[in-house]
Design a protein that fits this description.
The protein is α+β, with helices and mostly antiparallel strands. It contains three helices and five strands. The longest helix has 16 residues.
């Protein structure tokens, strides 16, 4: 965890095959200029310098996932356990100073 307040958080996760600089916000001021006033959410992931934006249809993915779970074809607790543990660790972490290669690109404007 590199930053947290009531509306946003940023940090870094390292896995066997991925290094993840993450940023989450519920502050509309953090939306990209291109979508401000047009949509209320923005979701994207950048892999090898290529951004994939997946804001549209995201709610549908959750609905389909829940339908599959209720039908007995979805993910179970064992599948989600590591995700729950990761979120718990993030929620209880105290912010630390980010190493240059670990800080999210939005981090400098957050820690003025």
């Amino acid at each position: 965890m590199h930053y947290t307040d009531e509306q946003k958080a940023a940090g870094y996760l390292e896995y066997e095959k991925a290094r993840v600089r993450w940023f989450f916000s519920i502050d509309a001021k953090d939306l990209p200029e291109a979508v401000k006033g047009k949509q209320t959410t923005y979701r994207s992931i950048t892999i090898d310098d290529e951004e994939i934006e997946f804001s549209k249809g995201f709610t549908d993915l959750h609905t389909i996932s829940y339908q599959e779970i209720l039908a007995g074809r979805g993910y179970g607790l064992n599948d989600a356990c590591h995700c729950i543990e990761t979120v718990d660790t993030i929620r209880s972490a105290s912010p630390t100073v980010a190493k240059a290669q670990e800080g999210h690109p939005f981090l400098p404007k957050l820690i003025k």
